[in-house]
Amino acid sequence: MLWKYSGLGVVTQTSADHRYVDGQLQRSKKPAFVRGLDPAHNHHRKYVFKSAAIQASTTKGPFQDFYEALVAMGMRPEMARLTLARKMATISWRVWRKGVAFDAQYLKPPTA
User: Fold this and answer.
1) For 28-37, 46-55, 59-68, 99-108, which range has the lowest pLDDT when averaged over its residues?
2) 33 pLDDT exceeds 70?
3) What CA–CA distance (Å, rounded) separates 8 from 39?
4) Does any domain span residue 86?
5) Cα angle vertex 39, ends 4, 59, to 5°?
6) Residue 31 domain flag
7) Does residue 82 contact residue 38 with C-beta atoms inside 8 Å?
8) Confidence category of residue 5, pLDDT binned at 50, 70, 90
9) Among 19, 66, 78, 111, which residue carries the largest CB count within 10 Å?
10) Where does 1-112 have alpha helices with state H?
11) Measured over all CA atoms, what is the biggest interatomic distance in the chain, rounded to whole angstroms?
12) Cα–Cα distance between 17 and 48 in angstroms, integer?
């Protein structure tokens, strides 16, 4: 929910989820179409998280290591920054809700 509110959630769209085959209603095998990031969001919050991700990806530290690991796995840099922004949003939510201090352990290294 935080990703969607922050404009970092992906929007998908489907059409004709079911069809009739031999008189039986069956689920269609067509995949959902990805339509980009959610347009209904808090613009300021999205700006904050994306700006923080850009800064963190260029500054030495655990966030840069996380970003570089994503790029090394073959992820496009803009998608790696989006993933980093989502990770930062999730960590900030956890720190706020649980009342704990930031720990680099929250940045689990991505697996191939």
Assistant:
1) 28-37
2) no
3) 9
4) yes
5) 65
6) no
7) no
8) low
9) 66
10) 2-5, 43-58, 62-72, 77-98
11) 61
12) 37
Which residue in the block uniquely carries the two structure tokens 């930062």?
A: 88
Domain range enclosing 85:
44-112
Confidence of residue 77 (pLDDT cuts 50, 70, 90): very high
In a domain, residue 6? The reply is: no
Percentage, residues of the chain above pLDDT 90? 27
- Are 62 and 53 a contacting pair, CB within 8 Å? no
Comparing 31 with 20, the larger pLDDT belongs to: 20
Mean pLDDT of 79-98: 87
User: C-alpha distances in angstroms, 10 versus 34, 39, 51, 100?
Assistant: 7, 10, 19, 29
State how many domains the chain has: 1
CA pair distance 2, 89, nearest whole angstrom: 7
Q: How far is 40 from 110, CA to CA, in rounded Å?
A: 29
